[in-house]
Amino acid sequence: MLQNVGGIDRFLRIAVGVALIGATLAGVLPVWGWIGVVPLATGAIGWCPAYLPFGIRTCRRSA
Prior knowledge:
This protein is mainly α and 63 residues long. The chain has helices spanning 7-25, 37-45. The protein starts with 6 loop residues before the first helix and ends in an 18-residue tail after the last helix.
């Protein structure tokens, strides 16, 4: 599994994931806020299955 998520995209995914989960734990968002696990996980592992059909890569290609 090659990485297809990099740099700023990865940071934003992790930040949004943590924010959604934190807001849910704080009671600001209802249970659907647990969807923050998805961007958190994809940012942490650096791979997003939704990018595959579109051929999107936000990380640098290794030489």
